[in-house]
Amino acid sequence: MAMIDLDKMLAKVKSTQWSLSxxxxxxxxxxxxxxxQWPKLKDFMTDLMWIEHVGARAFAAMAKKAPTDTLREIxxxxxxxxxxxxxxxxxxxxRWGMLDGDELPEPNINLRLIIEWLDRHSDEVPVYVLGTxxxxxxxxxxxxxxxxxxxxVDDPVCHQAFEKINDDESRHLGVGFSVMEMQGHGATxxxxxxxxxxxxxxxxxxxxxxxxxxLNKMRDNVVAMGLSEEKLYACMEKFEKIGGRTREGRSNxxxxxxxxxxxxxxxxxxxxxxxxxxxxxxxxSYIPRKLLPAVPxxxxxxxxxxxA
Amino acid sequence: xxxxxxxxxxxxxxxxxPATSVKKHKPATVLIVGAGFAxxxxxxxxxxxxxxDIVILERAGEVGGTWxxxxxxxxxxxxxxxxxxxxxxxxxxxxxxFSGSEEILGYIKAMVKRxxxxxxxRFNQNVSDLAFDEDQGxxxxxxxxxxxxxxxxxxxxxxxxxxxSFPDISGIEKYQGHKVHxxxxxxxxxxxxxxxxxxxxxxxxxxxxxxxxxxxxxxxVFQRTPAWVVPRPDFDTPDWQKAxxxxxxxxxxxxxxxxxxxxxxxxxxxxxxxxxxxxxxRLGRWHLKRQVKDRWLRRQLTPxxxxxxKRILVSNDYYPxxxxxxCKLITWPITRxxxxxxxxxxxxxxxFDCIVFATGFDVGHSGTPFPVRGxxxxxxxxxxxxxxxxxxxxxxxxxxxLFLTFGPNSGPGHNSxxxxxxxxxxxxxxxxxxxxxxNLKTLSVRGEAQDEYNSKxxxxxxxxxWNSGCKSxxxxxDGVNATMYPGFATQYARQMASLELKDYELIPA
Lengths: 308, 509
Ligand SMILES: Cc1cc2nc3c(=O)[nH]c(=O)nc-3n(C[C@H](O)[C@H](O)[C@H](O)COP(=O)(O)OP(=O)(O)OC[C@H]3O[C@@H](n4cnc5c(N)ncnc54)[C@H](O)[C@@H]3O)c2cc1C
Ligand SMILES: [Fe+2]
What we know:
CATH class of the largest domain in chain B: Alpha Beta
CATH topology of chain A: Ferritin
Radius of gyration of chain A: 19 Å
Bound molecules: flavin-adenine dinucleotide, fe (ii) ion
Strand content of chain A: under 5%
Strand content of chain B: 15-25%
Low-confidence stretches of chain B: 1-18
Number of domains of chain B: 2
Oligomer: heterodimer
């Protein structure tokens, strides 16, 4: 596939903006959530909302580092759009009576670690590292989770909201893969050296240390909700297929790394990967929340209110 | 507002006289458009040179330009008053180092009295067309009021920042709440207890916000790009200083000279990328870090372009104001406006009782505020389509006897506009005197001289911070800098000090 025209994409993004008030939050259908579904759905929505929110923060970091003005502006919008998704998901939770007053639901510890990492380090990480990880997260987590949600939940308002969200996400993916291909252009040798340097970058190591357990933890959560593990993995394979469809995409060293990583992740028999990472998941669950610094203030911008 | 017309281009008055009853006035020696600092200063210096047959056309009912229109709460100059005033009319009584709008307007009005300028001014005359009559060798200015005023020479002093601009936001006309532009303040509107939005975070906004936050129940500030903000050394003038200035005027001139040199040295930081630029950026970052503790807010307020690329702002109370409990900074892109307020891309509608547009002015990079027609009916806006050009910022080939103030590439980034203005005004006096002394029908700059001047200037501009990649109102859509002067004020003054006759074509009357 030819690379997309980013200027046209920006125009498209600008012309397809929507807002929370486009959705009738009091429309009938909220009672279609079954009593049995409710507690698991609550946890699920909490994770989903936080994933959108960390995705938002990652786009903010990418906007800062974007190589062109157009891309910077696109990422600035994507940052806001991911925030919009998080807001919408919070509004759904509100609709389903899952919010404790005005309280933000607590993120799980792995997400909490990612938030911490994004806050401290993401602005300093080269854009091509995030530019590869983010499409992966979008496909695997957003993609799989949303699909699952729509298969299980009957509330029409939820379907209406996710139709809009998915339209946005498809643009995020288009740009994500296009940028991956852009980065794949040119001398691979230099890229590999640069990449090797990045892998030794303590910020990146820390990021990896937060990201791996997040994925395994999400897998566990998803399985607990009744989604087949295979569905999640099918999504991760989609990343490999789309990202690897062109030579440029394939020659992006970060694509290669993440591809291998997702293969390990999908292969439950790969004990070298899963034993330590599952151990990490377990270990992180013992981190006392008190030890973590206060949540950064960007987290407090989430809201379920369509108007302010 | 009283009779001070808002700086927006006034709508055509209802009582516009039909074209058939055009009122032609006897030609003056010099016709000036605009009674702001530039127009009035020109009149003073012409008068001092013995040229007293002057007509000044002013669209508003009052003098003052920028300082008549920009009287929003907190409006003040950001160049010290002792430098932001005319050297030929120094004021020992400035109450503070950076005077407020009202005090500056008072200074301008006092100047009009002292030099008895009122007799030259035709108020409420909005120039809609300026055309050169080659046979007669006179410029004719047609006004919306149906008058035609003429002059042997014409001076365009209609101001670089005099037409308020509204942002290009879709649905802006749908908004039903109150709207106020910073350059046409509504002093009758009571902001107390209101939900107020401010669009823009430029020079005017950072002065308005600290004032509005005191009154509004909730103030929401919409920022597109953060600007560099440095501390402002503002203080009240001690009485002894005023007394000293009055008794020993030389001491005020000395202070002025010192301020001038201090600002000149800032050119090193502002105009070119130098170690001083780094230093200035450090000052900006230090100021931010000292005043803003929250990391995310600080990130939102940190500029991502080189200092000097756009106008540097000075303020001590802007960052603290943003952190008041009733204030909120929004950096999400604005997507549209609705009946109730502003929608941003994170999906939220921000509703307001009143929206303040601190969104600046229409700056004509590539046009003219009204049609200007020169020799052979040529049109200035057409020639300037790809970026305005002039000779030494002041004359344009094909437009004889016409002088521009704040013409192309005369903008200061680091020093008082009035310093540049004085150089321009004295040049205009020289030009007009040449026309009179040699009894010329036309004095026209040669095209080659203009081209040569411009290619040099553009070469020098390429090396400046303004052309270092940020988008600013200094640049045209295509990135041509037709606004700023790439050098020290001293260099500019030197360039303007002599009128080189070899660069002009002189045709006797
Ligand atoms: C808020 C603000 C703060 C500023 N602070 C500083 C500062 O600190 N330091 C600095 O150096 N510069 C500053 N400036 C720049 C400032 O514009 C100049 O310093 C200076 O005041 C410009 O004077 P002027 O006479 O050229 O234009 P203006 O003051 O704008 O005067 C032009 C006059 O022409 C009239 N006019 C316009 N069009 C027509 C027409 N078609 N027909 C008839 N009359 C017309 C207008 O009504 C106006 O009275 C500031 C500008 C603004 C807006
Ligand atoms: Fe998302």
